């Protein structure tokens, strides 16, 4: 990896780390918040739901804006909005006698900020580097930062709330301001073109050349119809036409990656919810100790993501098979939970699940950035991020319903989701070559 990009990458990695902390820190302290605000369990759950829904809806919009106007132009205001949302929550909890609705509004602002910050970090890494191996390694670090936030969240949230119950809200503006300063001053504007770097227009030209039929004529609706080689932002109708062309040509593997990403987050947050409930109800673990136990499978997920990002390089076939292996390992881990009644056995299986998810996520990120031109990369990766947020939103309530009504089939349902991910990885993702340097003509990555 380019040594001069070290601080750029650290700064970009701070974005998903901080956005993850901003949401996941609340999960272990929701019962305490419910008690302090004198609200119901359903009402306190809306603090997570409102954040996620805002992010799901606005992430594709942020992706389009980042493609049209630039990554930093979208990321910096979004981080500021997220910080303001955290401040609104904290000040309301501190000074207002009935702060629930105001805190809900603050969480909505946080979700809006998260939509424009964390998902845009992934295409920004794709813009920063020339070599695809550097991109894959960088994405592994981004995924590690994202997962690292999940590791720290239960511990940090419990520790801050032990001091003052609303302190996790007040920490968000501090985290956001730190990330704003790092991105503003340490992340250099990516090079758009040059003798060795394929810029957006060059990438679009390569897509056109691939779209040509045997007679050398471009296919209908290919990006050549957009023109726009002067470097100015394309119009929305032209952009939508290009987007339609991308999905018509690459939809099979894109839809598969979207689905696998959603399944991974569904499994992760569903299992975390299950483990959190189990630790309190069956093993009577609370506070920071509970946070440390929750962090065990997440730590292995984080470490696996980091190593996977380092080893996949430009090898797209390797990405496919690691995704498949990770899905199979997750399947074995979920079904392996069935015979265990001890906490140690269950933690072992859930740790294997974390490793399986850690194998898949960096590969999915790398497929998105390697397979989509810069001009549309932000939007496509944002669709992918939205699908992951859907998994986050659906996992805990789905597991809650299964635990209350059909507890015996919980792990069979989770196993079925893993099996679906493995089938999609095996049959829907077909890399045409093992290595595809970005400077060469761009064949389909999957």
From TrEMBL:
Keywords on record: Cell membrane, Membrane, Transmembrane, Transmembrane helix, Transport
Positions of region (Disordered): 192-229
Annotated Gene Ontology cellular component terms: plasma membrane
One of the record's GO molecular function terms: transmembrane transporter activity
Family in the record: Belongs to the major facilitator superfamily. TCR/Tet family.
Membrane topology, from the record: Multi-pass membrane protein
Domain Major facilitator superfamily (MFS) profile stretches: 8-433
Bilayer-spanning residue ranges: 12-33, 45-66, 73-96, 162-187, 253-275, 287-309, 321-341, 347-370, 382-403, 409-429
Keyword flag Transmembrane: yes
Ranges of Polar residues composition bias in the record: 218-229
The species this protein was found in: Paenibacillus chitinolyticus
The keyword Transcription appears for this protein: no
Places the protein is found: Cell membrane
Pfam families to which the protein is assigned, alphabetical: MFS_1
Protein name: MFS transporter
């Amino acid at each position: 990896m380019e040594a001069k990009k070290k601080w750029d990458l650290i700064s970009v990695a701070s974005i998903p780390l901080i956005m993850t902390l901003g949401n996941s820190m609340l999960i272990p302290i929701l019962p305490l918040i419910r008690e302090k605000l004198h609200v119901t369990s359903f009402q306190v759950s809306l603090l997570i739901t409102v954040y996620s829904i805002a992010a799901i809806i606005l992430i594709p919009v942020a992706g389009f804006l980042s493609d049209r106007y630039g990554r930093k132009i979208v990321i910096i205001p979004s981080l500021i909005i997220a910080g303001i949302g955290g401040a609104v929550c904290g000040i309301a909890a501190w000074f207002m006698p009935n702060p629930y609705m105001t805190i809900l509004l603050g969480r909505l602002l946080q979700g809006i900020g998260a939509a424009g910050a964390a998902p845009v970090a992934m295409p920004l890494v794709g813009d920063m580097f020339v070599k695809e191996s550097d991109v894959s390694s960088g994405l592994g670090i981004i995924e590690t930062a994202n997962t690292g936030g999940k590791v720290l969240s239960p511990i940090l949230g419990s520790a801050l709330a032990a001091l003052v119950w609303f302190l996790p809200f007040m920490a968000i503006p501090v985290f956001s301001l730190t990330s704003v300063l790092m991105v503003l001053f340490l992340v250099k504007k990516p090079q758009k073109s040059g003798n060795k770097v394929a810029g957006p227009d060059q990438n679009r030209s390569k897509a056109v050349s691939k779209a040509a039929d045997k007679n050398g004529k471009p296919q209908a609706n290919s990006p050549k119809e957009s023109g726009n080689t002067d470097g100015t932002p394309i119009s929305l109708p032209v952009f939508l036409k290009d987007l339609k062309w991308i999905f018509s040509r690459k939809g099979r593997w894109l839809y598969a990656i979207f689905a696998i990403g959603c399944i991974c987050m569904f499994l992760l947050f569903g299992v975390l919810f299950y483990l959190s409930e189990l630790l309190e109800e069956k093993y009577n673990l609370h506070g920071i100790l509970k946070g440390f136990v929750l962090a065990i499978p997440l730590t292995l997920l984080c470490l696996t993501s980091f190593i996977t990002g380092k080893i996949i390089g430009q090898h797209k076939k390797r990405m496919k098979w690691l995704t498949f292996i990770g899905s199979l390992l997750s399947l074995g881990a979920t079904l392996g939970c069935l015979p265990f009644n001890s906490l140690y056995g269950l933690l072992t299986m859930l740790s294997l699940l974390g490793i399986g998810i850690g194998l898949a996520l960096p590969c999915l990120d790398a497929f998105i950035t390697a397979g989509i031109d810069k001009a549309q990369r932000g939007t496509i990766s944002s669709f992918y991020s939205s699908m992951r947020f859907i998994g986050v939103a659906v996992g805990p309530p789905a597991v809650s319903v299964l635990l209350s009504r059909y507890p015996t089939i919980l792990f069979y349902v989770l196993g079925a989701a893993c099996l679906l991910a493995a089938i999609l990885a095996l049959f829907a993702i077909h890399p045409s070559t093992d290595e595809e340097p970005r400077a060469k003509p761009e064949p389909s990555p999957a």
